[in-house]
Amino acid sequence: MSKIKNITFTIKKYDYFKPFHITGSLSNFATNIEVCIETESGAKGHGEASPSFRVNGEKVETLIHLEPIIKDALIGLNVKNYRKIFDVMDKFFAFPSIKAAIQYATLDALSEEIGMPVYQILGGAKDEIETDKTVGIDTIENMVKDAKEIFDSGFTTIKIKVGEDLKKDIEVLDEIYKNTRGAKYIVDANMGYTPKQAIEFVKTLYSKNIEIHLFEQPVASTDFEGLKIVRFNSPFPVGADESAKTKYDVLRLIKMEAVDFINIKLMKSGISDALAIVEMVKSANLQLMIGCMGESSVGINQSVNFALGTGAFVFHDLDSALMLKEDNFRGKYLSNPPIYKAL
Ligand SMILES: [Mg+2]
After folding, report:
1. Quick one: CATH architecture of 121-342?
2. Which of 24, 177, 300, 320 has a CA between 20 and 30 Å from the CA of residue 49?
3. Å from CA of 242 to ligand 1 middle
4. What are 46-60's pLDDT values in tens digits?
């Protein structure tokens, strides 16, 4: 029988190999919640919530108390009718990382029941994807060293964190560009600039012949007008991350013509909204990237299967599991960075 018999939450802590610094935030470790859904036949589905207080106001200390409430809401539902479970979890929109973990664990349990991998349940559009790797904020010297290491180890797309110091950020891009010729760059300001600073940043890079492939979240998450101003004054594509949490945010961004790219993260949207966002963005002829918070291989597994299944993404920023210390790799995919393959 494919009915849900039990759901458990477990807190897990992972240290970063190197403290991860982005605009307004420094992390030494990630604290996540692993969820396990067990069906009456004994199939187990695994998911992971990696909450972000900065983006979604979520804390593990709050989320852990949802365990009995979610058990009460879902026990007895059949994972083969997974949309019913998704609809219940949509009510938990205020806790999007838990919504993501439960929705994914449901698909994972279904996958075990029917013997078909999750990426195929979601469409099986691709067999492999390529991830980027991120350079966090640091001294110019260290950022260039990190970018070189990433490029030399085979990554073709480098993501660079900026947003705390415009003058230094331009110097960083200049130096990284000189040292990693041929790489593609995603530059993420994590809301650090004003619209005017963001425009000055991209215009200066353009004048130096530095091309960036995507300029992520230059301004405050609530400043949709600011995003639009940057978009129409930038020679490079502009994307929304912190501004694009739910499908309703994305509908507004599309209507306003505020961005070229949407960064989907399961931790902001869950599987249900992420599926809706994929179709909305494709309908609007805009482009998609997929990103992560502080997921381990259990959580990155969710996004890898989602990306392989939908085949919807131009860029995959699924590197958190490469930045965290884990005892064992537990993804149901082949990790050979920068390539992730379906099993
Ligand atoms: Mg971002």
Report:
1. Alpha-Beta Barrel (3.20)
2. 24
3. 7
4. 999 999 999 999 999
